[in-house]
Design a protein that fits this description.
The protein has 385 residues and is an alpha/beta fold. It has helices at 45-57, 73-81, 91-109, 113-116, 139-151, 164-167, 180-197, 213-223, 241-249, 262-271, 287-300, 313-324, 370-375; strands at residues 12-18, 25-31, 37-41, 124-130, 158-162, 202-206, 230-232, 254-256, 277-278, 331-333, 351-352, 355-357. The strands form two sheets. Strands 4, 5, 6, 7, 8, 9, 10, 11 and 12 form a nine-stranded mixed sheet that branches.
Length: 385
């Protein structure tokens, strides 16, 4: 079915959710035209279905999607996130619905989402990926790791390197304060990484909001000699005066934003010029509609955005469409093996020289392997609810 043979008007008939054994829960929006849209969701299948049920059968069912025009995306975005916020914003589910609406619109109109967003500023996107963990204070580890990363067939030219492998703490465990020995160890680890990787590989010093402000200031000074691409998420994710204080003290570029919810969460970082780059996640930040607004506001402040993207095939496909259509999006995060996606019925777009070729398929370019999904549902998960 193509865009010119659709019944007029098309109506949404159902919204469903499915949690596979691996990867993000998927949202599916069905229509009376037989065309469906898909989006990734940051909650479990049961949670997603509960939110969908509340949306359509709660106190305000008129704000739901059933029977509505799927192309009225801005109206739906307002109704999902703003029309009645007292009901609670289940952002990680509603974001998936928004992504699915954009995918559906692209399929109905026979266009990739990047074109619906206004067109492509780029046909290829530079990617950055992730370094494995290990003994970061061992020069031998870095020689082996550098050889591995440089031999990666994708040709990535930037990697995140996680600080918690040096501090010896679980990822995202809050560290009350670092002492001089720990800060020196961090400086030593990243110096070894730079020596092994050379200047041709960019390094992102990757935290998960573990540090307090004094420790973050010291770590920024310790890694300054390696000229990191960014110092990511060193302190608590919500904006506070601590971010402005860190920006004044640090001489390295700061990156944050994967936990931002909606444009109002991003705004104070921009107003206070607290970071050098924002990293919203489509699942966490209001879907494609929310991230587009964040990026447009950031562009007014001449701040770039680089989408956070670690939740699997469908999110990767959506993120590359959005990244292509944003003027101020120089890079995109990517897992090391994006083609390892058994839920996909078509090959992942080509990556060469660390750059991803943007899909020109309708919607976000997703083709799902229904047989694999059916055979690999999470335990107890019903088939599309």
């Amino acid at each position: 079915m193509n865009a010119f043979s659709l019944p007029n008007p098309v109506k949404i008939t159902d919204v469903r959710a499915l949690q596979p054994k691996r990867g993000a829960t998927l949202i599916k929006i069905e229509t009376d035209a037989g065309v469906c849209g898909y989006g990734p969701c940051g909650e479990s299948g049961p949670t997603a279905r509960a939110v969908i049920d509340l949306l359509h059968h709660g106190r305000l069912p008129h704000l739901g999607l059933i029977g509505k025009d799927p192309l009225a995306i801005q109206v739906h975005y307002h109704n999902l996130f703003y029309a009645y916020p007292q009901r609670g914003r289940h952002v990680r589910v509603l974001s998936g619905i928004d992504i699915a609406l954009w995918d559906l619109a692209g399929k109905l109109l026979g266009q990739p989402v990047s074109k619906l967003l206004g067109g492509n500023f780029r046909e290829e996107i530079r990617l950055y990926s992730h370094c494995r963990g290990g003994n970061f204070l061992d020069p031998g580890f870095w020689r082996e790791t550098a050889a591995e990363l440089k031999a990666d067939p994708h040709g990535f030219t930037a990697y995140k390197i996680d600080i918690h492998h040096v501090t010896g703490t679980p990822m995202q465990q809050y560290i009350p304060s670092l002492g001089p020995q720990e800060v020196r160890a961090i400086g030593r680890a990243y110096t070894l990484a730079r020596e092994a990787l050379g200047d041709e590989i960019d390094i992102i010093v990757h935290c998960h909001n573990e540090l307090d402000l004094p420790s973050a200031v010291q770590v920024a000074a310790a890694v300054e000699p390696i000229r990191p691409l960014y110092f990511e998420d060193p302190i608590a994710p919500a904006y506070s005066d601590a971010w402005a204080a860190l920006r004044r003290a640090a001489r390295v570029p700061l990156l944050t934003g994967e936990n931002i919810e909606l444009p109002e969460g991003a705004l104070p970082f921009l107003q206070h010029q607290a970071v050098d780059c924002l990293q919203p996640d489509l699942i966490n930040s209001g879907g494609i509609s929310g991230v587009k607004i964040i990026a447009e506001i950031a562009a007014l402040y001449r701040i770039p955005v680089m989408l956070h993207n670690v939740s699997g095939y469908v999110l990767s496909m959506a993120s590359q469409q959005v990244s292509a259509a944003l003027f101020n999006c120089p890079m995109l995060e990517c897992v090391r093996r994006p083609e390892d996606a058994p839920e996909a019925a078509a090959p992942f777009p080509a990556i060469q020289g660390g750059r991803l070729r943007v899909s020109q398929e309708p919607g976000i370019g997703v083709t799902l392997n229904e047989e694999w999904l059916k055979a690999n549902r999470a335990e107890g998960e019903p088939w599309w609810g």
